[in-house]
User: What shape does this take?
Amino acid sequence: MLDTDFFRRWLTLCAGSVEREAPRLTELDAAIGDADHGANLRRGFAAVTAALDRDAPGSPGAVLLLAGRQLIATVGGASGPLYGTLLRSAGKALGDAPEVTPAELAAALREGVTAVAGLGGARPGDKTMLDALEPAVVALAGAPEAFGRAAAAAAEGALATVPMRARKGRASYLGERSMGHQDPGATSSALLVAALAEAERT
Ligand code: ADP
Ligand code: MG
Ligand code: MG
Assistant: This one.
């Protein structure tokens, strides 16, 4: 079972990872966007950890709802509403259960990813965060307890964005010139799924 503490740990690990990798995320965004992805997420996840300390949400669903709300409120770029929607939809799906099973988390994340696609209108192959998130939720649907496998699927998905031509977001303005660069959002998504696997080990 995954309790509230597990979810706090997951988001705290996300914040640490985003903090460490912010320069790289911004560098990737400099190549095909506006060079702010690292700064955007660093600001957003700093607000998430501050809110977790301040409000002490009492269930896994409440942790995700709070985190999603903070990302929407503090991240200026496209990734804020998208990641916010991911976490808020997943949080809503978990309801107020004090503990959830990995299968329930897998189903909740599927709802979150579907909501991201609904909001942004992107599909796998469009060179966005969905190229890492979709393979991760597919992996979790098949093996809900294998967080490490989901993390590997997300990392592979992020790498696979390199040759893609962007069809959504700022990078799409570059057309063919977006090819040959890894998508910043897919890269940060892989970090978030890796943090899930890390939360399980700690
Ligand atoms: P902005 O582009 O507004 O500066 P960020 O740099 O924080 O926002 O985030 C850019 C990332 O957001 C992209 O690399 C991509 O993965 C993701 N993204 C942008 N638009 C969409 C969309 N419509 N659907 C899914 N993901 C998107
Ligand atoms: Mg940007
Ligand atoms: Mg921006």
The chain has one domain: 2-201. The beta strands are 2-3, 99-100. Residues 29, 33-34, 36-37, 40, 77-79, 82, 120-122, 128-130, 168-170, 183-186 surround adenosine-5'-diphosphate (ligand 1) (CB under 6 Å). The helical segments are 4-32, 37-55, 60-74, 79-94, 102-120, 130-142, 147-159, 184-201.
